[in-house]
Structure formats: C-alpha cells, structure tokens
Amino acid sequence: MNAPYRITRRIEIDAGHRIMTHGSKCRHLHGHRYAIEAVCEAADLHHGGEQTDMVLDFGFLKDEMLAAIDGPCDHGFIAALADRELLAMFCPMGRDVDGWLNSLETQLRAHGEATTTDTRLGTKLTVVPFQPTAECLARHWFTRLAEPVGRRSDGQARLVSVKVWETPNCTAEFSG
C-alpha cells in the first residue's frame, strides 16, 4: 500500500557503456546522458528536528544519489564483468590482464561494483555483475540507495523506485 507522502529527486550523469550481447548497435561503445530519479515515501512527516514536516530532506537524498551514482559513474564507463575483451582494453600498460581483472572481480564481489581509475588512460571505470542496461542499472542503483534513504530519514522514509532515462524517450524503472 502506498504511503500518502512521496518525494522525488533527479540527478543526471554522463557515462559510456556497451551491451555486449545486443544484436544491433548497442553492442558498440557509446554513451548516454542518463537522468536518474529516486522516489521516496513515508506514512507520516517528521515531527521534529531539521527534517520537520519532510519525508526526507531533498539535500540528504541528493547527497546519497551523488555518492551512489554520480561519484562512481559520472564521466566514466560502465562495463559488465563478463565483457572481458572490452575490459582488457582498459588494463594499464605492462600489467597482467588476468591479475588486473581478478582484482576488479574481488572488489565487485565485496562491494557490488568495482570503480577504479587504475586504467590504461586513467579514465574512470565501473564494473558491474550484469549487462549495463537501463533496467539493470535502475535495480543496481535502487539497491545502493535503499539503506541510505532509511538511515538518512531516521527510518521515516523508504525508497519506492528508481527510474533511469537512457534517452529522452526511453526509461526503465525498478521498484523494490
């Protein structure tokens, strides 16, 4: 059942990706101006403190979205761990590709993603355990935001959904 109060915060990032299994043009390296919306709800508003009469302070939600989404992904490249041929192109010169990939996989297993600038050109790379489709990114970012939303709202609010615009005409949404 939906709570009577809802808020929405939107951020935008620029990131590259490719969908290695795609049968058409999305298998090529390309980028998007992603827009990401997080929707939070609460049954009641805060009755005291700095969030009085709020579901969750918009600034708090923005901070968490920047930490979970913008920080790791903006102006970087998002790649699937399974896309080893692509990832090998990011491996720093003179490094053992398999060892470098294994270190990314270890970080990914511990944290749900691996973000590094230890790449051939020093560019930002985020490695995820799925194809970086809009649908999977919405689910991933939902998972990364759900706990911080509860914590920052002192348990008052919950994350309802994350919506990802891959283009102005195409969106994917994940609701927990």
Topology:
Elements: E1 5-17, E2 30-42, H1 58-73, E3 76-80, H2 84-90, H3 97-111, E4 114-116, E5 125-128, H4 134-152, E6 158-167, E7 170-175
Parallel strand pairs: 1-3, 3-5
Antiparallel strand pairs: 1-2, 2-6, 4-5, 6-7
Helix pairs in contact: 1-4
The SSE string, one letter per element, is EEHEHHEEHEE
Beginning-to-end CA distance, first to last residue: 13 Å
Helix fraction? Answer: 25-40%
Mean pLDDT: 96
The assigned structural class equals alpha/beta
What's the arrangement of strands in the largest beta sheet?
4-5-3-1-2-6-7
Global outline: elongated
Task: Walk me through what this model shows.
With 176 residues, this protein is an alpha/beta fold. It has four helices and seven strands. It has helices at residues 58-73, 84-90, 97-111, 134-152; strands at residues 5-17, 30-42, 76-80, 114-116, 125-128, 158-167, 170-175. The longest helix has 19 residues, at 134-152. The mean pLDDT is 96.
Short description:
The protein is built from 4 helices and 7 strands. It has 176 residues and is an alpha/beta fold.
Kindly list the characteristics that best describe this protein.
about 180 residues, alpha/beta, seven-stranded mixed β-sheet, about 30% helix
